[in-house]
């Protein structure tokens, strides 16, 4: 999933407003979707069924994939993936033929800022093969990442390069959204910048990189991140026995077909006229959900390459246990700005990337994670000579004072109209308080380290 310089894109916030009738329809659809989610679980798993996700899982199965997980909404946790039964290391959680992934379309230009508006247009196509997947994606207002942060909130971040990068990000989104205005008009839709930003946010928060291609990966992208997570996904043969042999013998992964790498994947047309007729007689609700269309594409029409992206359990997981996904070590500002959520637990009291000494001050590297955190199970702790520690304490003291000096101005920021309910504002303010506390704790740790060094030096005399 991918925090890239390419992300430096943008939108100048308030622009086109959706017509009242369209807004009412969207509100009704959102209410219906919310009602669908509240289906109690009867299988001993936590939370409630997510109907759109259930349809997605069936769509993957209908088209040659394997799914051995359940998707649930759990109060206080949100949507996630859970073990449908007891799992052992190596068990397959999901196996998705590469032909089922949705590849980002960069025909307008480079970066998610150009592909996001195109995704929005693709999602409006009711007959799209990927409609069951599109229907499972978060709706507008459910993604809170940097693409959608109102610009009056940016002073909360209090980092010049990051604030400038977000403005550029949003300006670029607006630019590409306007380029596609004729396509929106043809579909009798407004080229609404907020909608285009939602498409970009979906890509930047949910894509995975394979063959230098950014793709949306069904099912795996439903799993929540955990820094300590070990479950992984990789390219394997769809045939389970061949995949097991590849893992056991350390054989190289199969190459992904060029059609996948180019993002050009054409669904096969159904050949069975009887199946087609049966589909036409199904309930319209099924057709709208895309399940009927998925059934029209027999298994052999999908997964023809025999190559899958396979997600496996790497540890024992009891039935009902949550199945996580790991995007590498993410600090709190990584998840707030890149993915739009606050992590719970001890990570909240670790220095944010922006406040770490190794954070790059180069504008073009503003989204890069510090190399000292790559592949690490826990954040890197600063160390060095006594003089190094003293210098770092002074740096943090200056940083803390600068943040606190802006507290009054930040507290006066009001909820913006592009942030209904103030969810983004509340998240940013909570993160800011965590940053302050994390700096204070690090200064205390360094003070103790400095005292320990002083005592050691005395002992050596």
UniProtKB/TrEMBL annotation:
Keyword Ion transport included in the entry's annotation: no
SUPFAM superfamilies: SET domain
Descriptive protein name: SET domain-containing protein
Annotated GO MF terms: protein-lysine N-methyltransferase activity
N-terminal signal peptide: 1-20
Keyword Signal on entry: yes
InterPro entries documented for this protein: SET_dom_sf, SETD3_SETD6_MTase
Keyword set, alphabetical order: Signal
Top-rank taxon: Eukaryota
Gene3D superfamilies according to UniProt: set domain protein methyltransferase, domain 1 (3.90.1410.10)
């Amino acid at each position: 999933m991918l925090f890239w310089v390419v992300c430096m894109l943008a939108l100048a916030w308030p622009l086109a407003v959706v017509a009242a009738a369209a807004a009412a329809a969207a509100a009704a659809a959102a209410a219906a979707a919310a009602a669908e989610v509240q289906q109690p679980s009867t299988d001993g798993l936590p939370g409630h069924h997510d109907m759109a996700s259930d349809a997605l899982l069936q769509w993957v199965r209908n088209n040659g994939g394997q799914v051995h997980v359940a998707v649930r909404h759990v109060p206080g946790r949100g949507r996630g993936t859970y073990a449908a039964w007891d799992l052992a290391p190596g068990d397959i959680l999901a196996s998705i033929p590469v032909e089922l992934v949705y590849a980002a379309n960069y025909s307008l230009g480079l970066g998610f800022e150009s592909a996001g508006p195109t995704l929005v247009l693709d999602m409006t196509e009711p007959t799209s093969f990927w409609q069951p997947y599109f229907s499972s994606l978060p709706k507008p207002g459910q993604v809170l990442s940097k693409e959608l942060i109102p610009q009056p909130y940016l002073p909360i971040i209090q980092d010049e390069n990051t604030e400038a990068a977000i403005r550029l990000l949003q300006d670029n989104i607006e630019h590409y959204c306007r380029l596609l205005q004729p396509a929106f008009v043809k579909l009798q839709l407004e080229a609404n910048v907020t909608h285009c930003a939602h498409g970009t946010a979906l890509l930047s928060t949910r894509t995975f990189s394979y063959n230098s291609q950014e793709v949306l990966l069904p099912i795996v992208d439903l799993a929540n991140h955990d820094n300590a997570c070990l479950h992984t996904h990789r390219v394997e043969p769809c045939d389970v026995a061949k995949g097991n042999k590849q893992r056991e013998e350390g054989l190289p992964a199969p190459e992904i077909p060029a059609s996948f790498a180019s993002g050009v994947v054409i669904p096969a047309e159904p050949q069975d006229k009887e199946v087609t007729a049966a589909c036409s007689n199904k309930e319209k609700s099924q057709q709208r959900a895309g399940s009927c269309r998925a059934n029209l594409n027999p298994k052999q029409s999908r997964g023809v390459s025999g190559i899958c992206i396979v997600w496996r359990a790497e540890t024992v997981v009891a039935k009902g246990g949550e199945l996580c996904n790991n995007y590498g070590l993410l600090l709190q500002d990584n998840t707030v700005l890149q993915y739009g959520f606050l992590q719970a637990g001890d990570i909240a009291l670790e220095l944010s990337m922006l406040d770490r000494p190794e954070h790059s001050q180069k504008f073009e590297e503003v989204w890069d994670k510090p190399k000292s955190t790559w592949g690490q199970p826990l954040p890197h702790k600063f160390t060095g000579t006594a003089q190094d520690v003293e210098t770092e304490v002074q740096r943090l003291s200056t940083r803390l004072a600068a943040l606190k000096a802006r507290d009054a101005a930040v507290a006066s920021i009001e909820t913006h109209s592009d942030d209904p309910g103030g969810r983004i504002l509340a998240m940013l303010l909570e993160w800011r308080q965590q940053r302050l506390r994390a700096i204070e704790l690090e200064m205390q740790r360094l003070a103790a380290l400095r005292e320990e060094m002083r005592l050691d030096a005395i002992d050596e005399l």
